[in-house]
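Entry 14. Structure prediction run on the chain below.
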Amino acid sequence: MKIIAAVLFFSVLAVISGCATMPTGPNVVVLPGPGKPFEVFQADDAVCRQWAQQQIGGASPSQTANQNTATGATVGALVGAAMGAAIGAATGNAAAGAAIGGGTGLLGGTAMGSNAGAASEYQLQRRYDIAYQQCMYAKGNQIPGAVRRQARAYVPPPPPPPPPKVVVVMPPAPATVLHDIYFDFNKADIRPDAAETLKKNLEWFKQNPGKKVRVEGNTDITGTEKYNMGLGQKRADAAKAYLIKLGIDGALLEAISYGDTKPVCSEKDEACWAKQRRVHFAPLN
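Output returned:
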């Protein structure tokens, strides 16, 4: 009986040692976020402890380990007692065999349950710590060794492209033309206004170098046809001579007379006849 009592005593000690108290909180270090008051950090800690507990089923790692140890011890004791009783019956002392077998089974079951509990506690503690760190990190706290990714700076979208450039094409400047010059009645002299017109006509010759021009003398209908042809020629020659004097090559100028055969109006009055007394410049292709 003393042997049986000793076995039971040491078995109970083994069960108690297998149920040693384990940590019930995180085993990791978390620091307050930059500028965060400690009171807010404590509130984050409480919330995250509760959340981490929920992620592992609501029981602490130590509670789960103790449960596994106790379960192993109970199963070991029952199995050992049955086997011990069977062996004791064969030797003639079933009670002693059951007691010894129960104690031995209790020790073995406790050892196995303790090992299983320790492994289970490690896994649960690791899951608990990961959940706790995730929660604290999400609330802006610092995890030593973790590098917080810098938020990408906002880059505004590029401005819309400028509207297509509108090229305003100015209409070409009106082409320089050769202007007619006019004469007094029955005269072939170059008047001051006619001289200014001839000077302006120089621009056309500059823009059309080497181009020939026919200098056409005209008269009104007063006078005979022969007289008017002669007067028209004098006017054409006078205009040609003035242009040569201004620097135009005489070889480019052809002076002829049309007399009164090319009227520009049909009225029988001085206003119409004044328009007829002219020299016209016709460019030649």
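The radius of gyration is 63 Å.
Filed with the rest of this week's runs.
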